[in-house]
Specification:
The structure holds two protein chains of two kinds. By secondary structure, chain A is α/β, with parallel strands linked by helices. Helix content of chain A is 44%, strand content 18%. In chain A, the strands form four sheets. Chain A has a six-stranded mixed sheet with strand order 3-4-14-9-10-13, sandwiched between helices. In chain A, strands 7-6-5-8 form a four-stranded parallel sheet, sandwiched between helices. In chain A, strands 1-2 form a two-stranded antiparallel ribbon. Chain A is globular, with a radius of gyration of 19 Å. In chain B, β4 (140-142), α7 and β5 (164-165) form a beta-alpha-beta unit. The two termini of chain B are 17 Å apart. Chain B is of the alpha/beta class. The radius of gyration of chain B is 17 Å and the shape is globular. Chain B has a nine-stranded parallel sheet with strand order 5-4-3-2-1-9-8-7-6. In chain B, 48% of the residues lie in helices and 12% in strands. Chain B has one domain (9-278): Aldolase class I (TIM Barrel, Alpha-Beta Barrel). Classes of the chains: A alpha/beta, B alpha/beta.
């Protein structure tokens, strides 16, 4: 396991707790509850039991031979199949862990933000499972892009609240969720969906998502008798990436690659590549790389993928970027669409648009690796939710 | 006007800057409840802010809270969010903040407390930001998302320029946190009336007496109650257990409701009338 944050909740200079005073006691309570929970065998057993019986873990590790052969260079590729988790993405690992934590803290109500809708669906799902009242905040623009997920959340008994402020996307949904939490903090737990936000969230989310990397590592060791040479994941806030990276951070032989959303192109200014083109600033309670103007006003992000359409990033990624331990690159909207098509045609797997960014970056990443290298890719989610949007983009109308 | 203002007397040349903490202490000593109304700088333009500030001071404000617009105001409800959007759309950027503050300082004598989220301060640098705002005439700084650990470097910058760094107390604050806040705060303690964001609500005052009492046990600083004070009656009730009130959304919303066509003078007249009503209610309660 990677090192946790320091006592102030910092990863190097990044992270911290930049929140209104009203929330500070809740963050202290959450940290204490989380520490106690992960040290409690009964909690761990409940979490792992539901990961197996409800989420469907362990997820398979799929060799991607036709994809590897199309990319060339003699590299072998393995896909960690988070798309096969119940609800179709890695998000449920964290949502389940936090919902159990809410139960443990005696909070009957959970709230969450969502971008693409995957975290919202995961939260609504575990809330239904555990009998918790649930409200999801979603940008109005994202509700339009991800109508199907809005319907799924409502069917699961959650209230979905449209956020009309700002850019009407993930950033604004987070603002609104935090405002709800400030107001209802004594009865409500906020299930933050990514490894960002104030301490202890980045640490807590990484801990619940680390199952991606530890399972994949163990599976790979069984199949290949060795560790991967590279681990690759897409990055919005960075939860699937930090979950994949977690067991490998202290192993320098494993190269780590995060793929940010390049939107229309980083040079266009229309992108979500905070680690590539941002600079450190405070958003949503943490200091981390951030898209902002000279005055410190947060700039709207852009990505074809609602789940990556976020101007910030988790603080641990900022530390990994500065130290050079992980490399961060970008893929444009157009490249992501090609990545989606590439995986669909070669492996019979349609990835989420978010995940398609990681696929699209593989040719560039593999080019720098010697033949025989083993590359582990987090296949963070499936693409069903994106079909209407992609069809429209490619000029086909589907109902 | 129903009562005299301890800050009366126009500055001559230069930017007279009565200390925030000292001014509030003076109010307390004379039995006057502090009235600190809020305006968003540059909403919708600086000329309006100057006119509104002048009207507020003339109507009996003891200090004025000046909001610095930010793209992601976590602690604010819809009214202040919308005011920030208008101010940013109107072109108020940090680079123009100093001249905006200076214009208000030239128009009024009462202490000015800037309310800004932390990121604009960080981007400019704490020391540089505080020096510039102090030179422009600000007396205090209120940062709703500043962690306690960050009050040390920002507090040091503030002390060097005679700027007070206000501390926050919430109904949810533990006694240990209140004690830590009290140790680092100067000027006054901003007592948040409810667990929640700025703006009107029905249950504003239930928890105020207990929170104020807990603050009193750890500090002698003046305690002002804010968030959800949306009538003279609520102002009186909150001030009865504290040293005064901060009134923001109630005024901002009413002034905004005049619509985009209203002149700065019309907005100022309404803001002044509302502050005047609060002043009379507070003074009447004190006299009664």
């Amino acid at each position: 396991m990677a090192d946790g944050p320091d006592a102030q909740g910092r990863f190097g200079p990044y992270g911290g707790q930049y929140v209104p005073e009203t929330l500070m006691p809740a963050l202290e309570e959450l940290e204490a509850a989380f520490r106690a929970a992960i040290a409690d065998p009964a909690f761990v057993a409940a979490f792992e039991g539901l990961l197996a019986s409800f989420v469907g873990r362990p997820t398979p590790l799929t060799p991607a031979e036709r994809l590897a052969s199309r990319i060339g260079g003699g590299v072998r590729i393995y896909l960690k199949r988070e798309d096969l988790c119940h609800t179709g993405a890695h998000k449920i690992n964290n949502a389940l862990g936090q919902a159990l934590l809410a139960q443990r803290m005696g909070k009957p109500r959970v709230i969450a933000e969502t971008g693409a809708g995957q975290h919202g669906v995961a939260t609504a799902t575990v809330a239904a499972l555990l009998g918790q009242s649930c409200r999801i905040y979603m940008g109005e623009e994202d509700m339009r892009r991800q109508e199907l997920n809005v319907f799924r959340m409502r069917l699961l008994g959650a209230e979905v609240t449209a956020v009309r402020a700002g850019s009407r996307t993930l950033k604004d949904a987070l603002n609104e969720a935090i405002r709800d939490w400030v107001t209802n903090v004594e009865t409500t737990h906020y299930i933050l969906g990514t490894a960002a936000g104030p301490h202890p969230y980045p640490w807590l989310v990484r801990t619940f998502q680390a199952v991606i990397g530890t399972e994949a590592r163990d599976q790979l060791v069984r199949l290949e008798g060795r560790l991967p040479d590279a681990a690759v994941a897409c990055i919005g806030g960075g939860s699937n990436a930090i979950g994949l990276f977690a067991p490998f951070i202290s192993m320098p032989s494993v190269r780590l690659y995060g793929v940010e959303a390049g939107g229309i192109g980083v040079e266009s200014g229309q992108h979500a590549a905070s680690l590539t083109a941002g600079r450190p600033g405070v958003l949503h309670g943490a200091l981390s790389y951030l898209l902002q103007d000279a005055d410190g006003q947060v700039q709207p992000a852009h990505s074809i993928s609602a789940g990556l359409d976020y101007p910030g990033v988790g603080p641990e990624h900022s530390q990994l970027r500065d130290s050079g331990r992980a490399a961060y690159l970008t893929c444009t909207d157009a490249e992501a669409l090609e990545g989606m098509r590439l995986l669909a045609e070669t492996e019979g797997i349609i990835p989420a648009l978010e995940t398609a960014h990681a696929i699209a970056a593989l040719p560039r990443i593999c080019e720098g690796l010697p033949p025989g290298s083993v590359v582990l890719v987090s296949l963070s989610g499936r693409g069903d939710k994106d079909m209407a949007q992609v069809a429209q983009r490619l000029g086909t109308e589907i109902i | 006007m129903s009562s005299s203002n301890p800050h009366e007397g126009r500055a001559g040349t230069g930017r007279r800057r009565p200390g925030l903490g000292a001014a509030l202490e003076a109010c307390r000593a004379s039995g006057r409840k502090v009235l600190a109304p809020y305006l968003m700088l540059g909403d919708p333009d600086v000329a309006t802010s100057v006119a509104v500030a002048r009207a507020m001071a003339a109507a009996g404000a003891d200090a004025i809270e000046l909001g610095v617009p930010f793209s992601d105001p976590l602690a604010d409800g819809p009214t202040i969010q919308a005011a920030g959007v208008r101010a940013l759309a109107g072109g108020l950027r940090v680079g123009r903040l100093e001249s905006a503050v200076a214009s208000i300082r030239d128009a009024v004598d009462c202490p000015l407390a800037l309310m800004s989220y932390v990121n604009p301060l960080l981007q400019r640098g704490y020391a540089d930001f505080v020096a510039a705002m102090a030179a422009a005439g600000a007396n205090g700084l209120i940062v709703p998302d500043l962690p306690l650990e960050e009050t040390m470097p920002l507090g040091a910058a503030c002390r060097g320029h005679g700027v007070d760094l206000v501390g926050f107390a919430a109904p949810t604050s533990t006694d240990a946190r209140l004690a830590a806040v009290a140790r680092s705060a100067t000027g006054f303690i901003y007592c948040v009336s409810v667990a929640g964001v700025t703006g009107p609500r029905s249950d504003t005052l239930q928890r105020v007496p207990a929170t104020v009492a807990r603050v009193r046990r750890v500090t002698d600083l003046p305690v002002l109650v804010g968030f959800g004070i949306d009538s003279p009656q609520k102002a009186v009730a909150a001030a009865a257990v504290a040293d005064g009130v901060i009134v923001a959304s109630w005024i901002v919303a009413a002034v905004a409701d005049l619509g985009p066509g209203a002149t700065p003078a019309e907005r100022a007249e309404l803001a002044g009338a509302m502050v005047g009503g609060l002043r009379r209610a507070l003074d009447g309660a004190a006299a009664g």
